[in-house]
Amino acid sequence: MCGIAGWIDFDRDLTQYGSTVRTMVATMANRGPDAENVWTDRHVALAFRRLAVIDLPGGDQPMLARENGDTRAVLSTTARSTTSVPCAPS
Q: What tens digit of pLDDT does each residue of 3-22 get?
């Protein structure tokens, strides 16, 4: 079991609210006692707790996808199957 929390606020600079985001992730300690991570940008903050079951060395989350130095996506994954299923656009 893992946990992820997020905060979006276009009126504040969330990089100034690190202690609040760390408090958010602390409330989920029972969901993931093995690791935690916090990622913040100006208007977005994400916090993650991890229960390490598989992919111990490579399972740090949230994972970042970057392009030209800019963050394009922040991902939280769960491995359920080895079969790849393409996602249809919504």
A: 788 899 999 999 999 899 99
Which residue is catalytic, options 2, 45, 46, 47?
Answer: 2
Is the separation of the CB atoms in 4 and 62 below 8 Å?
A: yes
Residue 59 in contact with residue 48, Cβ under 8 Å?
Answer: no
pTM, entire model: 0.62
Digit-coded pLDDT (tens) for 30-45: 877 777 888 888 998 8
For 10: left if phi > 0, alpha if psi spans -120 to 50, otherwise beta; the answer is: alpha
87 is catalytic: no
**What's the rounded Cα separation, in Å, for the pair 22 and 67?**
27
